[in-house]
Design goal:
The complex is a heterodimer of chains A (about 425) and B (about 350). With about 425 residues, chain A is mainly α. Chain A folds into two domains: about 100 residues, no CATH class; about 220 residues, MetI-like (MetI-like fold, Orthogonal Bundle), CATH 1.10.3720.10. In chain A, a hairpin with a 5-residue loop joins strand 1 and strand 2. Chain A is flat. In chain B, strands 1, 2, 3, 4, 5, 6, 7, 8, 9, 10 and 11 form an eleven-stranded mixed beta sheet that branches. In chain B, strand 1, helix 2 and strand 2 form a beta-alpha-beta unit. The chains are: A mainly alpha (about 425), B alpha/beta (about 350). At the A-B interface, helix 1, helix 5, helix 6, helix 10 and helix 19 of A face helix 1, helix 4 and helix 16 of B.
Chain lengths: ~425, ~350
């Protein structure tokens, strides 16, 4: 084969203005990329500021432990030399006496006492009481004086707590979040039986989320099937009925469940009227796990219906017809031909509902009673009541990690590309 | 090292996107517990204060705790000026530098010239806060529902054989632990000594175990009267003022059992670093004056904290009921009263809360 050398380009292909096409193309692409970037920039900044940074801050708070390190630096320095048995010597007592008085003047004493009290209860009163009295001491020996003020100062545990909590970064919150603690001898062990709580609550959170996901799937599948197969004018009406609660306030829906399910509520009244249960046998359906399950299932149902519906809508009825014409019974055709095609919607709906319910807060708080509360209620408790924000951050981080692991598992087993949200 | 820039940016971002209703810059924000209680403050303090000094008062509700105050002080974006707190928060907030110390000599004297320090009931003025009311946790039942024998003592509350049915209790160890011990036979004066020991705490939890399956837990003060009205519970612990409110304004036939009522103070504190500190202090002085405290008692059945106000307590502003017999401090009600020991709870709250939560979850 011969090539005409005169017409074939010997150098790079040139654009109309004489620059090489490659360069010109790259330039055009860069401009387009920049424009695209500028368009998403507001959203990116929004996500960064309201989502990524708070998460980073949360991760940081769960290990950050500055209060004691900042206020008792000399004491901690002295305690470095202490071997952790018996009591430290006079220098440690003198240092802590001086630093606690300083902390009181800077209005920091309360923070130190609170932090130590989280770890060993009674520290708050010990410190408060001691500082009030040591201010009057002009000179040492402080060891004797402090132990005279309160004999707990002679306990090894008090000092090992101070030494341990003196670390500026710490994993104690993660231990606490997993029902573990550092024993007086320095080893890590489980909390005593009557203090263990979070492991059980995490398991319960997972269990409730699984149940809610299961119930949602059971209820949503037939509805979505109807939605996708009914003639348009009926299916539109049905769609409105699905979406109407979706647009109603979460709180309104939760409180309506209280009205319906309480002891003297609509459902119980109906059961008594029909005669299924007696006046004394009214069923407790709210302020327990049942209440949480019912209310959460109803609230999260649209998140299951919508992805299912959008997938079912695309399934051509001809597949089912083909299966029938090849001799399959309706049930077999449905299970073997129709259902596999909805897998993408099932996956998406389940993942969506599960992840939403694992962090659910307001509904369990209102209708959960004692057996229906979830881990987010405890996170809120530590944010609002106990003010142990580091522990709340640690619990939140564990929850986040659990969700990520589940997401990873889902991706491994089902594959995220097989998910269809609509 | 902390992350001030990150946090600051996040807070700014959130504030820009989700800023709440605009609050007039000159208004004073007073935060309290909502419902009938806030209403009483509105009528007895806010309205007269605005009438006298012209400053508008923005009233906000919260559910207790120091979380919001701490967030505001730490980020320096202070929107609350005066907060109504319980004693443990008053003490703790002061220790942590969240509240302004209050000079007791700046409080107004009684009309007869008695200095404020002598006029206030002991314990009602602390370093950073001044108490406005004496309130009490009692238990109550609906006399329309409870037609047979009526409970008269705290022991009856714990007796599920004699009075079968659900009980309402606040979801916190405070009050419940004390009541459990008293119902178990501990003398009132020894309650906190017993509760300071591990054995005493075990004993309290064991007593609570005996009614655990019969308890519905409430969190907001407005819940117990609602639960009684709905027939959700047979009897419930409650703040006495809320029950009174249902009796007086909603014609409910609720009865209060005053036996072993646990009383406490509620305090006004000024948030540290507020720009309107002088205004806040003037408001606090005004609200804690003799007439205002007495006036509040005509809106809700919480007792005034000044001795000089006690004689001025009159009739309920809405129903015209005589308020005196409904006060926790009325001698007839006060016979078996126990003061909530704030020192004990400041020390042990974290630990007992944890144990209580673990006990609940089991």
């Amino acid at each position: 084969m011969t090539v005409d050398a005169g017409t074939a380009p010997s150098g790079p292909i040139l654009a109309a203005d004489g620059t090489p096409l490659k360069v010109s193309l790259r330039k055009a692409q860069r401009v387009r990329k920049l424009r695209a970037f500028a368009l998403v920039l507001p959203l990116l900044a929004f996500v960064l500021i309201t989502f990524i940074l708070p998460i980073v801050d949360m991760l940081f708070r769960s290990v950050d432990n500055p209060v004691v390190a900042r206020n008792l630096p000399i004491t901690l320095n002295v305690l470095k030399e202490w071997d952790g048995t018996g009591t430290p010597d006079e220098t440690a007592y003198a240092a802590i006496a001086k630093e606690l008085v300083e902390a009181r003047e800077n209005k920091e004493m309360g923070k130190v006492a609170t932090r130590l009290n989280f770890e060993t209860s009674g520290m708050r009163s010990l410190i408060g009481k001691s500082v009030r009295k040591i201010r009057r001491l002009k000179e040492g020996p402080y060891k004797e004086a402090l132990i005279k003020i309160d004999k707990r100062w002679a306990n090894t545990e008090i000092w090992s707590t101070i030494k341990r909590i003196g670390a500026p970064y710490t994993h104690v919150q993660y231990l606490a979040a997993l029902d573990m603690k550092t024993q007086p001898d320095g080893s890590v062990g489980m909390q005593p039986e009557d203090r263990q709580i979070y492991g059980q609550i995490f398991m319960r959170t997972l269990w409730i989320s699984l149940l809610v996901t299961g119930f949602c799937l059971l209820l949503a599948y037939p509805v979505s099937y109807l939605l996708a197969t009914l003639p348009l004018r009926y299916s539109n009406l049905l769609m409105v009925m699905v979406l109407l609660p979706f647009w109603t306030s979460l709180l309104v829906r939760t409180t309506s469940w209280i009205v319906l399910l309480q002891r003297n509520g609509v459902v119980n009244d109906l059961l008594v009227w029909v005669g299924i249960v007696g006046e004394d046998g009214r069923i407790q359906m709210i302020y327990n796990q049942t209440g949480t399950l019912v209310a959460m299932t109803q609230i999260l149902l649209p998140f299951m219906i919508l992805p299912l519906y959008s997938v079912m809508k695309t399934i051509s009825p001809s597949y089912m017809r083909a299966a029938r014409s090849l001799g399959a019974k309706p049930a077999t055709a449905f299970v073997r031909v129709y259902m596999p095609q909805t897998a993408a919607g099932v996956g998406a709906g389940c993942l969506l509902v599960f992840i939403l319910s694992i962090g659910y807060y307001i509904t369990p708080a209102l209708v959960g009673g004692q057996s229906g509360t979830m881990i987010s209620n405890f996170i809120a408790y530590h944010m609002k009541s106990s003010l142990n924000w580091s522990l709340a951050a640690a619990l939140g981080t564990i929850l986040l990690a659990a969700v990520l692991v589940l997401y990873w598992l889902y991706n491994k087993i089902v594959g995220i590309d097989n998910m269809k949200l609509g | 090292m902390r992350l001030p820039i990150l946090t600051g940016a996040a807070v700014l971002g959130l504030a820009a996107f989700a800023s709440g209703p605009a609050i007039a810059a000159d208004a004073l924000t007073v935060v309290s517990w909502g419902g009938a209680f806030t209403k009483s403050q509105l009528e007895a303090y806010h309205k007269p204060y605005t009438a006298k000094y012209g400053t508008k008062i923005q009233s906000e509700d919260y559910n207790g705790g120091l979380a919001e105050v701490r967030a505001q002080v730490e980020t320096g974006k202070i929107t609350w000026d005066v907060v109504d707190v319980e004693v443990s928060e008053g003490v703790r907030g002061c220790d942590e530098g969240l509240f302004e110390p209050i000079d007791t000599s700046s409080l107004l004297p009684a009309p007869d010239g008695t200095p404020a320090v002598d006029d206030f009931i002991p314990g009602s003025v602390i370093e950073c806060a001044v108490a406005t009311i004496v309130w009490s946790t009692v238990f109550a039942y609906d006399a329309d529902v409870m037609t047979g024998a009526k409970p008269t003592t705290l022991k009856d509350f714990f007796d599920v054989k004699k009075f079968p049915g659900k009980r309402g209790l606040r979801k916190t160890p405070v009050v419940n632990m004390e009541w459990a011990l008293i119902a178990d036979g501990v003398a009132r004066d020894d309650v906190y000594d017993v509760l300071s020991t591990k054995a005493g705490q075990d004993r309290a939890f064991k007593k609570l175990d005996s009614i655990k399956d019969h308890v519905l837990w409430w969190e907001a003060g407005a819940q117990p009267p609602q639960m009684l009205a709905d027939g959700e519970v047979l009897m419930t612990s409650a703040y006495n003022g809320r029950i009174f409110n249902a009796q007086a304004t909603e014609n409910k036939n609720f009865n209060i059992v005053w036996d072993n009522q646990l009383f406490a103070f509620d305090y006004y504190a000024i948030v540290k670093g507020t720009k309107r500190k002088d205004e806040a202090l003037r408001y606090l002085q005004f609200a804690t004056a003799t007439e205002q405290l007495a006036a509040q008692a005509s809106w809700i059945s919480y007792g005034p904290t000044r001795k000089s106000s006690a004689g001025m307590v009159g009739k309920h502003a809405i129903s015209g009921v005589d308020m005196k017999p409904h006060m926790p401090t009325d001698p007839k009600n006060f016979k078996t009263a126990l003061l909530n020991n704030s020192d004990f709870w400041a020390d042990n709250q974290d630990e007992l809360n944890e144990r209580f939560n673990a006990w609940l979850a089991k």
